[in-house]
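Most newcomers find our protein records easier to grasp once they have seen one. The structure tokens are whole numbers drawn from a learned vocabulary of backbone shapes. The record below serves as our worked example for the rest of this section.
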Amino acid sequence: MSLLVKEKEAKSKKKPVRLTLRVKWSVAVGLTIFLTFIIFAGIMYASFYNNLVNQEKQTTKQTRDLIVQRLSGFTNNLKSGDVMPLMMPEYYQNKDQNPLTSAFQDTIVSQLSRSDMAVQIYDRDEQQIFSSQQTKHVTFKSDNHAKLQIIRQNGKRLIVATRPIYAETNRQLIGYVFIVNYMDNVQRSTQMLRLQMFVLGVVAVLFSALIGYVIAYRLSKRVNVISDTIKEIDRSPESAARIPNFSGNDEINDLADQFNQMLDQVQRYIEQQKQFVGDVSHELRTPVAVIEGHLNLLNRWGKDDPEVLDESLKAASQEAERMNSLIEEMLQLTRAEQVESKNVQEITDVREVIMGVVDSIQMLHQDFSILSDIEMNADVSVRMTRNHLEQILIILLDNAVKYSTKRKEVHLSADTTPQEIHIVVQDFGMGISAESQQRIFDRFYRVDKARSRERGGNGLGLSIAYRLVKAYGGQLTVDSVEGSGSMFKVTLPTISESIPESTDHEDD
């Protein structure tokens, strides 16, 4: 019962909401465009609003100053009978009116006719003698200085202007002008602007979401292709499926190329492992059969025969040693095939390595003459691990020694060009036929199988050398004449930089 309960609980758990790349990109692009629109719209709105307010402030100041200029012609305290004719429209219907005065008063009349502007005149005792309309929530306060300020009342911004009126002749205080501009026009304009910006904002959100979706669709389409390819490879690791080339040149294309390269490399490794297992299985059959035959011989009657027993043990030991050598060489071959020269940073002095290998081979085979002719500077170097270069030279020199006949002599020469180094190993042995030269670098190929078995060869040394040279961007070729000997030539690209004083070497 507990198991059933756990299964029900597991099923009841809600799966986390999965947001697709399209949704994420649509939201991200939409928000980005919308926020950008909001910022610019806010800046434009603030600029537009400030311009309107400044215009209203300028209009209010001009109206105040014009009224003061007109009323400053009186010499005594202002009275209603003096002010009313100058402030009422009927006054301007007088046919004897001066045109300049009419033009001057037109501005005042236009402002007095505004429903959102209250103009009030007070005498010097602060008694109201004229009012175009009553002010709301704002009361007059006398001040001997001109003032123009913006105040906030009931959530609205108002312009309040005051100024004392002095007589032109005697500079006596005769009254005050008090103006309240409610800026209804500004409120209506900004309200209309906010409505328009809201509509534009909604359109911007929808448009930006559409753009985001289109971009996300194009991106996710390529991502889906990559995902489908991965699924295909997951179902069948040996599949030849690859990500197709996309139009354009961006990071997704780079990802696709790198993924295809990785798949090619992985499949090469798989094929190498398969070939390794197949080759080892094939080559181990003979020594295993030999060991098995001697064991059967011993089981039947050889245990009581010291001579047969000794012979069988020696044969089994030899075959076991050959099996061990074969497996070791196969591992070396596999590692050689997996070398990636682009990942190698070690710089190797070629002359130093050649001299060291020649001395070692000469010590092992003292009955041979290992002659070297090195025509290169001391600073010639290649970008490869030191042990790999040593391994290539040891294989070629050891092979030359193994297959020499009467003339116990091996020549090694080296020279350089501006871009390459050439290393030649020449023996004077049995030589290789033209047919065999075409297969000399194949796995387990032996020119003389009987002689190879006698000398302990498995047919892998030249294959290892060939693949190492190829891995580092070089070439390994052979030129041979039957009965006269063979000449193997290694060509490797050189580098111009100097050799560091101390270099760390990788283990093979």
